[in-house]
Structures are given as C-alpha cells and as structure tokens.
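This week, look over our next protein:
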Amino acid sequence: MASPLQFAYRTQKAIGVFDAAPVYEALPGFDKPEGTSRCCVYSPCSRYFAYATADGVVIVDASVGHVLTSLPIQSVYDLSFSPRGTFLSTWERPAKDENGDATKNLKIWRTIEDIEEGAEKQPLGKFVQKSASGWNLQYTDDERFCARIVTNEVQFYSTDDFSTVWNKLRAEGVADFAVAPGLNQNVAVFIPERKGQPAAVKVFNVPQFTTPISQKTFFKGDKVQLKWNALGTSLIVLAQTEVDKSNKSYYGETNMYLLSANGSFDARVTLDKEGPIHDVAWSPNSKEFGVVYGYMPAKTTIFNHRAVPTFSFPIGPRNTIIFSPTGRFVLVAGFGNLAGQIDVYDLEKDHRKVTTIESGNPSVCSWSPDSRYILTATTSPRLRVDNGIKLWHVGGGIMYNEEAFELYNVIWRPAPLDNVPAGDPLSPVPVPHASALAYLGTIKTPSKPAGAYRPPGARGTSTPLHFKREDEGGAAHIVTNGTPSIGPNGFGRQRRLIPGAEFTDPAVPGAAPTDGAVEGDENLSKTALKNKKKRGNKKAKDGETNNRGAGPDAGLAPPPRDFEGGSGGEGRSPERRGQQQQQQQQQQQHQPQHSRSQSRNNFPVRNRSNTHRARSQSRPGQRQGQQQQQNEPAQPFQQAGQGGAPLGPASDGGAQSANAKKIRSLQKKIRAIEDLEMRLAGGEKLEDTQMKKIGTKTSVIKELEALERE
C-alpha cells in the first residue's frame, strides 16, 4: 500500500502525484497527462483523484494511480467531490445554445457506476450556474440532501433525484448559505442590509424552514464568511463592508459574531486591538478558535466556544492561522506582502513556541494529515518566479525541495484520523531528502542587516520609542481620519480643540515663544504667509494712526490723502504705500508752492534688500521711529508744527509684554507636563528626558505664581 502522505501538483504542462515521506518518489502507477491541464482534486474520503484536461475528465484510484473511469466532457474548468466521494460535480464556462438560451454548465455525475459496454456515462443532474464563485452544490454529511442558491431562495434536492426540487427555504434577498457538517442537518443563510433593515444570519434545521432555530442581526455587513465548526454545533460569522465610512481602512470594516446551532448563545466577539480581522479558523476539536486581528503588527488570540479569550500569542506581522488536523499544533504566519515567517506553537505544552520557519514568499501553506509536516509552495500567477514545493518538519527543518516551472496548485491527499500513525510528531526527526540538503547548500549566510539610515547625530544612541513598532516596545498604532496623532510635545495624541476657541501655539514646550506665531502658519504657502504678514502690518499701522488721531492735538494733524483716485501706489506693499503717503503729507504741509520738478532725493533712501524688508515687517513701530529720526535734520519744524507730541509707545509696555510672554511660556510647559503625566498613568513608556520634564513641574508652578503676583 502506498504511503498515506501523498500530494498532487499541477504545472503548466503536467499533473503529478507524489508520495511524500518516507519514500519521496512519484506514484508508480500514475501516468502523467501531457498538455494543458485545468484543475485537479482529491475526494474528501481520500479514495479518488480526478483531473481535467482539454481531452476530458479522468478519475483514478489515489492509492495506486490506475484509471477508474472518464467523463466525455472537454471544457471543464473546476471539479468537486461530495463528502463521501459518491458524486462528482463539474463546472464549465457559461455559454449559449443555438436559441440564445444559457446552457446547463453545472453537471452532477456518479463517481463509480456500472454502465453497459460502449455506452457513454450520463449526468444525474444539470443546472445553469453563471458565477464561478460558490458554484458547487453543498451536501449534508450523510449525502442524503444537497442544496444550491437561486434568487431569493435556497433549493434542496434529494440525492436520489436531482431533477426535482425536494424543498425550498424562502428568504428574501438571500446572498449566501452554508450547510453544517456533522450529524446536525442545519443550514445557515445570510441576508444583507436592505431598505434600512439590518443584515441577518439565520440558522434552520432541514427541512423545518418556517422558523429559525438561531439568528443574529447586525449592521455593517455587505458580505460574510460563514464558518461552521467540525461538529456543526457553532457558527462564526465574519462580516465585512465594502467601504469603511471612518476612512481608517482601504479594505472596509470587519466584525465577527458567534452563534450556537441550537439558539442558546449568540454574541459579537469583542477584540481588544483596533483594526481589521485578517483570519479566523476553528480548531478540529470544535471547542476553540483562533483569530488574527488588528493593525500591523497584528495580535493572535485563542477563544473558547463561548467567545472568551483564553490565550494570546505575541504580537507580530502575521495574517494567517491554521490548526493542525490533530489539533495539537497551530501555525501563525505572515504571507502576502509580509515576510513569510511561520511560527509553530504546541497547544498541549502550554502554548510553547516550537520553531519559526523562514518560508520565503509562499502562496500555499497546509498541514499534512498526520500533523508532522508543513507544505509550502510558491505558485503562479501570483509569482511567476521561484515556483516550487517545500516540505518542512514540524520541528523546523526542511525535508524536501522541488522547483517547478509555472506551478499552479499543490494539494495534500486527505486521510482519516484513524489511519494516522501514533507517536510524537516532534521526535524522532526524520532524515531529510537529498534535495533538502542541496537546497541548504545554496542558501547564503545572511549578513548583518544594515538597518535604517541614521543621521550622524543619532548614531550610537537608542531608537526613540515613537519610531519603534508595537512588538518592539513602541506605542500602539493609532489610525485617524486625516488628523495628526501627535500632541504639542511631539508625542501622544493632540489635545481636543474647542469650536470657536482661539488656536494654541504649537511650539515645543519650554522653547522661547516666537512673535506672531499662530497655529496653522506652517501649513500656508510662502505667498499666503507673505500676504498674511502684510495684512497684519497694515492693521497695526491703521491702529497706530487712529491712536494718534484721538490725542488732544489731533486737530493740528493734516487729513489723510485719498488714494482711491489712482495715486500710483496701488501695486505697492502696505509699508511702501504708508511711507509714500506720509511723505506726501509732509510736502503738502510745509512746501505747498513747490512744483513737480522737485528732486526725489528729498525722500528717505529705500533699502530693497530682503533683510531690511523683513525687519520692517516684524517691527513696524521701530521702523516708523527710525524714519522720524531720519527726517528730523531735514525738517526740524516738524515736531513744532505738530505740537511736539512724542509718537513712541508707553515706557512700561515692553516690561508688561515680556512678563506676558513668560507667563504664556510657563503655562505651555505645565500643559505639556500634564499630558506626559496622563500618558504615564495610562501605562505608556516614557523616555528619560520626558521623566525629567515631569520632575520640573513644582519649580515651574512656583515661577508662574511669582510672575502672576508681579
């Protein structure tokens, strides 16, 4: 008898059946079909192996490889067996006949039957099935009934007669269903949201379809995955939306619910890490299940049949969980865009980690029926390079390696648990095949990783916590809807903003305050920032002019000149327009008889450098005072004409402004320290500099109180 460990593979030009450990050779009695191959599949009972080519469908004995029968159809693209291997379903591409009607492309065949010599095998039933997803019939465990979904109902057939509908489960808008395995003949149906009504999952007992025995309603469910445990007593509902309205995930929002088949329990599974649900799987013992969830690095947790968490594995970049057929081991891996690491845990040894396998970039990963080996394969069309099959021992060593050109699929031959040999899968460690030793010889010794670039000033120091992943000791990943998750001190969450309140200065606590710094300036362009400064300077200049006009000698000052008629200064900046206006006022007062031939050298010299312009914008009062000093020698009677009133600010204004700035700076420090104290109370790790800042709170408060008393 051939080894029970057997797998089949399909490449671009051939289909092969291979006996794995301990012989590692092709099945002797199987003749590889040449030419284009479309699909291949084992029966769940492990007795049959079927494959489809351009010439037809062939069914062989999986133990010896001899051909048992063939089907006269040439355009089959998918195959599937019933649970006990009695029936074979074939699916062809949808087409139309001469009258324009859709052909019946789903056909049901009896796997082995006695027919007269020379007669062709005929299908037991034919159906129209346009969709390639969920095309196959679903059977009860005893193969007495099978079901298929049509518009607004699930139709049940007796396997004795596929031409007549035996019973119907009417459900308006039903989108998916799943027949329970095991002895319980139950069926679960999913009805998505419709006309404001929530989505629902209902469980019925076959054939009592009038009242559901268990149900669960929920929102945010455009599509679901219905996962029964092996006994058919509990159902996991993984609901997903097409669009995440909070804009936190490109792939929509996911939620998970747990229902018992008898209606005694239904609840939403609560997860303690924010993010999508990557994978969920039942244990073969039907008493627990595992979930991989959360933003990367993800968290993996084992739940019991009442949705109570019992154990959590270390967080890491993982998105796949698979239990071994015996239920002793579980692998937690990261495939797809992740590094392909596989962690193997022993559930019977206090969830002890057995090994970590560096599998590369596989697209197929599955346990052997005896839970001793893990098969990984890189297949096309996901990756068209480095295609091949690798066989790993549960202890972590590689046992077999074979490269293939455009490998499309690899599947284990199923085996009942009764045929699995007894013993400890971890020991003794089997002898690897020669191909595994050759593969190990080609692997280069990994060099020390260079790591991320660090500027010279940061070299030789430890990485700050906010640059580390969560599994490396950093802060948890927080996804926001376009708002920064950094507070005023550079860490943690930003303080909530009150509608209508003034913006706070986002400067670093403890740093000297800057003049005119307003929150949001860093988001403006250079042109917008320049215009904003001009508008501020103009308002300040207008305010000073109004203050001078309100004095006791305001009647002696000349009226301002109106430039709306076109003075030639419309295109100038506010400072230059103000300067030109003041000079023209002086000319009108003191030199009314001068002609236009007067020399322009009487005007103050204008420095067009950026430095002088920036200084004049930031200090308009000082610039105005300097201008008056320059005009005094040329016009000594200006002060006398205006009553000798000084135009400078009050003498004590500078001291008050300095104290106000100090008070604001100290208040910012206190707010930053309070943020750090809240983060520390929440269990977050802080750096040494942040802890030192917390220790300075008492001195800062005393200094602030002293300034406020002054």
